[in-house]
Design goal:
globular; single chain; 4 helices; alpha+beta; 133 residues
């Protein structure tokens, strides 16, 4: 992903109802890309951005952030292909376990992740704390 693609990525995220938060600002995404260049992926078709996923690796576990597929390209295998490539790259890095978070009201996305083999855990509660506003 190149710096000039940020506006396209934000536009795609908005088109797929991903809520852009303070940690999704350009500077934060730059930090993510610098730390995880091998696991942050974009899908391009006819010179147009059609999908994106940010894969994070903390040295132990993999994390999936903001998988998005252009609405008119959804249900055509793009999201699955992005996740398959990301999982391949995580395996290359010897990642044993991958985590992702889905907002509670996003039933379609939950169904997608279940369909590609992710299991929903009910034994965890997500906690977060904002350090910088």
């Amino acid at each position: 992903m190149k710096i000039e693609d940020y506006e396209k990525v934000y536009k795609l995220w908005k088109a797929t109802d991903i809520i852009i938060k303070s940690s999704d600002q350009k500077e934060e995404i730059q930090r993510m890309l610098k730390r995880n260049p091998y696991t942050c992926l974009v899908g391009i078709e006819n010179n147009e951005l059609i999908s994106v996923v940010l894969g994070g690796f903390d040295g132990r576990r993999g994390y999936v952030h903001h998988l998005a597929v252009k609405p008119e390209k959804q249900s055509q295998g793009c999201g699955k292909a992005m996740m398959e490539e990301l999982m391949k790259r995580f395996k290359d890095l010897k990642v044993i376990k991958v985590h992702l978070f889905v907002e509670e009201n996003n039933k379609e996305v939950k169904d997608f992740y279940r369909h590609i083999g992710f299991k929903e855990r009910t034994d965890l509660t997500d906690f977060s704390k904002t350090l910088i506003k």
